[in-house]
Design goal:
The chain contains two helices and three strands. By secondary structure, it is α+β, with helices and mostly antiparallel strands. Strand 1 and strand 2 form a beta hairpin. The radius of gyration is 12 Å and the shape is globular.
Length: about 80
């Protein structure tokens, strides 16, 4: 099922494409607005922490790259 909160978020689409070992989505704040970028681990080869949350897509990308290294892999040359 496609997360309907991300239809106009190309950064979220790129994260999903570049990190297929995670389910990546945006949280919702208590007031209904979009919140943090969230990555939930679905492939143990892609990371160590079960969930990673960051305020923006650049920070989440950097953390997911660190997660790949922590898991014993290397990340691809990503955008």
């Amino acid at each position: 099922m496609k997360d309907t909160s991300s239809f106009d978020d190309p950064a979220l689409d790129r994260l999903r494409e570049d990190f297929p070992g995670h389910h990546i989505w945006r949280s919702r704040r208590w007031d209904g607005r979009l919140g943090e970028y969230v990555a939930t681990l679905i492939d143990p080869k892609a990371g160590v922490d079960a969930t990673v949350m960051r305020a923006d897509p650049v920070e989440l990308r950097a953390e997911l790259m660190r997660e790949a290294v922590r898991a014993g892999g290397a990340y691809r040359n990503l955008r």
